Amino acid sequence: MTWTRSYVVQRAYKLFTVRKDGSIGSLFINRKARLPIGVWMEAESHPTKGYAFRPMWHATEKPIAPHLSMNGRQWFEVEIRDFEEFQRPDSQGGKWFLAKGLQIDWPLELCSICGKPFKIDKAQIKKNICFPCWRRNWETVAKANEECLR
Ligand SMILES: [Zn+2]
């Protein structure tokens, strides 16, 4: 295992619990902590019964974790540093990272058509639809209009 240098910052994704009051928490380890957005956090050691002892932040390369429930949870774009990579089965989201430093950046919304998490763009026309779905829809409408004009 090789550790990257600390100045290397990697984009990654992490699923968090979002509580009724809007605060963000970890899914499994040190669950009660309220995690801030936009602040670098060092991994702390919280040995938890039933979980392998890894005093690191877990994050994934893509916002995909089919083995985890989305109930009460939301994907966030994060940045990590001092990390190592390891490969998990696709059913667990593929590439994972274990990082010593993590910063939460931005929440992802779920697309109302395909259900996949996506980042809302300022220039976006439909706020609840991801760009690939929006474009597919637009192409369908454009094609229908074209046929009407024939
Ligand atoms: Zn979509």
List the helices and strands and how they pair.
Layout: E1 9-18, E2 24-25, E3 41-42, E4 57-60, E5 73-87, E6 95-107, E7 109-110, E8 117-118, H1 131-149
The structure holds zinc ion.
Descriptive key words:
150 residues, mainly beta, 6-stranded antiparallel β-sheet, two-stranded antiparallel sheet, 8 strands, binds zinc ion
Could you please describe the fold and organization of this structure?
The structure is a single chain. By secondary structure, the protein is mainly beta. The protein folds into two domains: 4-107, no CATH class; 111-150, no CATH class. It is built from one helix and eight strands, in the order ββββββββα. The chain has one helix at 131-149, and strands at residues 9-18, 24-25, 41-42, 57-60, 73-87, 95-107, 109-110, 117-118. Strands 1, 2, 3, 4, 5 and 6 form a six-stranded antiparallel β-sheet that branches. Strands 7-8 form a two-stranded antiparallel ribbon. It is elongated. The protein starts with 8 loop residues before the first strand and ends with a helix. The mean pLDDT is 87. Zinc ion (ZN) binds at residues 111, 113-114, 116, 129-130, 132-133.
